[in-house]
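Checklist before submission:
- one chain only
- standard amino acids only
- sequence pasted in full

Submission:
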Amino acid sequence: MRLAYRVDVIAILSTVVVAAALTGPLGSTSASPAVANPDVASLEALRAIDLRLAIIAQRLVTANATLCRDTVPATGMILHAETQYDPASQPAARQAFRFATPVSVEAVVPGSPAAVAGIRANDGLAKIGSDALGAAAQPPSSADRDAALDVLERQKSPLFVTVARDGERREVKIPASLGCRARFEVVLGPKMTAQSDGKVVQIGMRFFERYRDEETAVIVAHELAHVILKHRVRLEAAGVKGGLLKEIGRNAQLGQTAELEADTLGVALLHNAGFDPASAARFWRERGGDIDGGLFRSRTHPATKRRIAAIEAAAGAIPAGERPYLSPVLAQRDSPLR
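Returned file contents:
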């Protein structure tokens, strides 16, 4: 089964690895079960959704690398581990993904450095640099995958990986460009989940069922903006409480400030990545009512009309043809939230 990653987060939406490595499978960490005893067809469908998110994320993190203080090699590989699947699901996972080694490549973003270097879906990863990858976790767990991602993020470009394919192993050089440090993953389940914990951006699979990738990119950019603007750290430093207390008084007000900052920077991130910056306001105007009211009508989030106005103002301030555009809101990432 795949596991849905649940965390109490500041924002609300959104892992594949920030730029460097993209993570898979869909929502894998330690919480409630999402798919029980999947067959090969369902696993292939989930792989396709992981890849859709990875394509959006790769585009955003590489185009905005100059805006980010923390960068990693953006290879375009989506990694997963055999131990992410429980014992009952592993036969189908082995059939779909092969797992020539415990950590494997779930998919590769087309045109990415990994794809150009010849990395393919279902390639096993025996080593990243000089670090051998293995299985130490008790399934179901994302620990082996996360350990591989940690190694990947420490590499410098070009990086070298040892690939296992068709019974043979070979070293592959990947001259990856840099991207913003962040991890992205799809969360399974019926909810319109969208969240970030300052490192991992999670997007519910319902977004991919309901919306085109250009629309979902608006939400991914918003969540990446939370990471870049260090909102998790800044909210904690401001003493913002979680749970029900986040809906009250100063907590709610600071939450709204963070949301508006992320809306503003999100527009710039879209523009720099070649998406239409007007798509953000259009999404909220046309799709806002589709989204879980409990999430987007929270007191920690501005009213839809207010956020549309802020998004339109941010889009209007972008000089024509300027890429990358360094939004003035970036200066706020070192300022306390007030």
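Reviewer check: Residues 1-35 have pLDDT under 50 and may be disordered.
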